[in-house]
Amino acid sequence: ENVRGDSVQKLPKYLNRYRLLFAATSASDTVIKSSMIENENMDRVWFDMAIPRDIDEIEIEKIRLFRIDDLRSISNDNYALKQEQALQAMEIVKRYEQEFYQWLRALSIEPVIKTMRLQVKEAIDKELDRAIDKKFVPETYRENMQKMAEQMFNRFLHDPTQELRKSSAEKNGLNKVEAIKEIFDISTENIDFKQYKEEHHKKGYEQ
Fold first, then answer.
1. Could you give the angle at the alpha carbon of 185 between the alpha carbons of 200 and 196, nearest 5°?
2. Tens digit of pLDDT for each residue in 35-90?
3. Which domains are seen in the chain, by residue range?
4. Which helix (H) or strand (E) holds 150?
5. Which terminus of the chain, N or C, has fewer Cβ atoms within 10 Å?
């Protein structure tokens, strides 16, 4: 009910009344001529959807004319842009995938390092108990000696553990981790890795 037909003789009237025009006829020649335009100061946007063209060549600054060939060109440009953006997105995904697997490999060393430190602490406690029992040192020295021993071993283990973290992120890092586990007789079968994922994610993967 909102569509109305009219004779082609009234075409100039409508051309000069409305700002937006879509032309799509099967005419063999152009049906919209420059001579039909009365008000050259009115901003208009015209779309020529016909092949051959419906709209004559118009060189009026206020009229933006898009032909179907122009629209195809815009579509092709947009497609090329989308292709380029898709490639960029794939590169980003690939980079994050590599970083994720590096993080995952590095994660495997965390329970091993923690177990090594626990073994050191247990050894310190055991030797302090033995020294106190044999009266090599008085009980009152225990706390200070324990702190000193733990600080010494932490300093001693610092560089090796940093190197382990670095090497564990490499492709052959799992082999090194397994070798360390065998040397120190460390088993990680019953360890809850969820805890280490949360800790390591906060410290490393988000950086």
1. 10
2. 999 888 889 999 988 888 899 988 899 998 888 877 777 777 777 777 777 777 77
3. 8-72 (3.40.50.720), 95-205 (no CATH)
4. helix 142-168
5. N
